[in-house]
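Lay summary

Proteins are chains of building blocks that fold into shapes. Our project writes down both the chain and a compact code for its shape. Here are two examples, one after the other.
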Amino acid sequence: MQYVTDAAELAELRLAHTDLPKGERAPGAYSVTGLILATRVHRCDGFADLLLAPDQATADVAAADSGIVAAATLDACKLQLAFLDGVLPCEVGFLVRARGLVGRSPRGQLSLYVDRAGEGYAVETHRPPLSEAGAGVAAVAQAGSFHGPERFHLVPDTVRWEKPLSRLGLGAHNLLSWKGEGPPPPPPPQPAGVKWGACWLLPTTDGAAVLIAARRHELSASGWRLLTCDAAVVSALSNKLAFFGLAQAAGLEGCLPRHFTSLESAAYPCVLKAAVGTYGRGVYVVASAEEARRRMGRHGGGLGVQWLLQELIPGGEELSASLLVEEGAVIDSVTVAYHYVSESGEHVWPRVKEDKSRRRSWRGLPAEHTAVFEGLLRGFSGVCNFNYKARPAAAPTADDEVGPAPEYASVLDPH
């Protein structure tokens, strides 16, 4: 049995397993003790982020801290625990002692695999006392590199934006696993006299955005600060078929790629998209009606029901505009230009290579682009992201879709 108690020993463990392939585990048991920062369930497995704390005394010191943990310290002392049966025996803020085998997750993250059916399995949990002087164990873990209170929580944590958000120094976090269902988490307490009031709750996925909108009165009553609107408006923006209907109603369908109503009428190659999906899921460049039919048959549904077929817009430059919107008016925006390299000129993000040397960003939008976006966002309040291509001397063509969830990944590039 080997014990990992501090950053130096964790660094040695990482170095010793540098060449461990994804999805495999190494022989030899390890034991760790620490504070649980975050929990999540992915498919059939449960995961927990643990901040090394070798004993109760260390936990008490952390709880009595001023609520500040340097980002470098957090990264150097954090290890992922993996529970193979998907049952998490701990919650955020618990002190945990666990034994297991070192392995690398399918995504490549070094983890301690705690197999309840395996030999040498052990896990002990209890909640350590919280300090009146600080924000408690969970708040210490969430503080990141920001020296102060928590101002924004982005949910759920499945997008893994905590590290890039901590670099902003704004008190923004992506640590809560809540997806909009079940009892909502309570907002963190704010010191007296803060200028911004309560903590903001923002969605990172379309599903969370819809559920936050649907439960906005309940969430506001519990103390969260929100920027949202009617759930039907949010839902329409997150569905590509409904979004095309919004464009038609606003007389702006000419700003979108041409839509085809049948496989036979399409001009190939073109783009086949699932009506619901984010981050490139369910989006394909198809070369024929046969390929489109095969793609739709694999996932169910049909054209005009769960799928849409649209014109393929050529060109390697794509624009990503993140918008702050209130009642349909664009209050502020940040735009990022990406250049993608494809031999055929036909690509779908993220299955394409980016020339990062040509990436650029700026604040604001051309007036003609703003007019189009505001026409499509009538009645919407929140943060959303348009991914699109711009035709020369013309209104923007929304080549992808709008998502009612903040796309900080586009700005910070955490990949």
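And here is the second example, written the same way.
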Amino acid sequence: MQPLSPPASLQRTTKGPQAVPVCFIRTRAQMATFVLVHGAWQAGWCWDDVVPRLRAHGHQAVALDLPGHGADTTALHQVTMAAYVDAMVSAVNSAAERAIMVGHSMGGPTMQTAEAAPDRLAAVVYVAALIPADGTAMLDIVGGFDPDYLAQFDWAPDRRSARILPAGARTYLYPLCPADRVHDAVSRLTPEPVGPYETPLFTTARAASVPAYYVGCLRDRIVSRETQLAMQARASARRVFEIDSDHSPFFSAPDELVAAFDEIAQETRLDPTRGVLECPRPKRTF
């Protein structure tokens, strides 16, 4: 395997006249496959800054378009929680190894994928995500959000889908993101179907067997700090990472987000209970 060029933050040299750069080499055992799942109104494009960074760390990454989003043309009235989960299970089943599934904001489908296919997952990672209590729906949590945020929803006449107003997206989804990213993202946002949010969710020991991690966003204007703490406890998160970002760290703090993902990948690889440890982690060479 050829050495990979390290990120700038990992480029180090020894002191003295014979200093040489770190040899940044990833064995297959250190790599991971990430399946990245977007939240409401968005699609796989929201991970555009994350995928190349993960690959630079030696990982594989796939960003999904859930049914009714992005390139997927499923009619909104046909989009269900089961359709989301089926698409996600298909993605992890296509991976050559157990995948790390990352769910942003809309955590329900991720937890249901862990329930449906625990043997295909090395870990699940919730990023500022909603995790309903057993027997409840994501909409039960959304109903408790800031009324000013909820006022940014533009409902379809049948109230079976909703858009977010452009001003609301800028204020709540992307307040700390680069202006060019915000402009592009707002132009791509599409209506969000309500059906998946109304579905009561249930999990058993199957989902609990998959190691869970939570990435909290300290300046999130949608999912409050209090709510995130409750979600972390509900997820029984093995570890919590906190990033000084808004609700969309894939744009506002991609380096910090990928650093957390990389750390999770290395920790997961060294977990013998998941059956993916292939060889010891090599030392960096100076």
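What can we say about the second shape? The first strand starts at residue 33 and ends at 37.
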